User: What shape does this take?
Amino acid sequence: MKKSPIIALDFESAEKTFEFLTVFEGDVNVKVGMQLYYKEGPAIIARLKERGFDIFLDLKLHDIPNTVKSAMEVLASLGVNLVNVHAAGGKTMMEAALEGLDKGTPTGIKRPSIIGVTQLTSTDERQVKEEQLIQASLQQSVLHYAKLTKDAGLDGVVCSVQEAAIISEVCGPEFLKVTPGIRLPENDVQDQKRIATPEEARKEGSTHIVVGRAITGASNPRAAYEQINALWKGTDRNG
Ligand SMILES: O=c1ccn([C@@H]2O[C@H](COP(=O)(O)O)[C@@H](O)[C@H]2O)c(=O)[nH]1
Assistant: This one.
């Protein structure tokens, strides 16, 4: 995917999505999540591809290895750039996902990159301990899932900016660190727990940032995107 921020298209319909995208060209990356994909199906991917967007299909697969493998085989045929699974599904499941993706990718086409979700950015230390009953710290849990994801042969992880530097150290700078939970100081945190600014993401070694409501909920989404893009790339005068 391009280095630009990945805009999370968390909209209820194709109509709302393309209304929002009227001010954007194909030079931006977009993310299609469960809400939009479940509503519109593969047709939304085809339409976004026609407009030239690089696409992260964020369906976070988590099931038994055979099911995930078959599902990935289908997703591979859509021609998106990036897909993901939950690392908590285990190493065998992630290997199966990769196998399905390889099998389903048409000859002569680059296979989509595949990353594992470590701990959601809406998860905090208390939930890891009390709800997941994990005795390790949140950071140790994220790092453990990152190593497992790398061992399974995947291309990277979804994590928060807070864990990006340690993951780079352990898994290498090329290992993708796709980081949601991006907020400007003036934005509401909403349901996220582990947030960071675009500058922090750049400094900590995120390879990609995912930004939803800070752009889609802004009064001028294009201006919000430009501001975030400049801060992320370090070209903002105050960044
Ligand atoms: O750990 C994760 C994994 C995925 N997401 C997704 O990213 C966007 C973030 O949206 P905001 O509006 O910027 O909070 C959203 O589509 C999530 O499904 C995540 O936030 N955290």
